[in-house]
Amino acid sequence: MEYTALILFTLATSITPGPNNVMIMTSGANHGFRKSIPHLLGIDLGFPIMLIAIGLGAGQIFQQSPSIFIWLKIIGSLYLTYLAYKIATAPVQNFEAKKAKPMTFFQAVLFQWVNPKAWIMCIGAVVTYTVAEGSYFQQVLVIALLFFTFGSPCTVTWLWFGSSLKKVLSNPKYLRAFNLSMGLLLMASLLPVLRDLYASFSID
Prior knowledge:
Helix content is about 80%, strand content about 0%. It contains ten helices and no strands. It is found in: Cell membrane.
């Protein structure tokens, strides 16, 4: 197993903008660092769990029926489009009210399964970095551990950045602009997935 290449892959995919990073930064800006910790842990633990599950079973299903993976991309993209709309158009008073709550730990864990980028990262890592020699099960666990080790600081960085903006965003006008920007960024993070879907359905 090429550990250096795998670590670079982990860092590159974990630090770049994507649904998880955009949403955890938005949570930090709207709810603060401490209240967003369950959301943070749900990402950092939920993704490695998903990677193990895909690596040990679900990946074979997608190899046998690629259309299932395509439909999962479509469903996930539609759901994330809905979330982007909700973030971009959320009334500012919703975030100021006491009833407004950040994503819970279990919600963040479950969110990984509708996140197209998470699926691509999991399948890409398992297919690319496992080798024929050695225990396949052990290799999948190592990949999951490396994502937890090197991916978690990336998620914390996005949360910290969002929470550091909280005072600035106490101004409703700025908060509204921030939420709109995050909604648009969330949509932009889907462009590679949408491009792949277009290629899948295009006819040569």
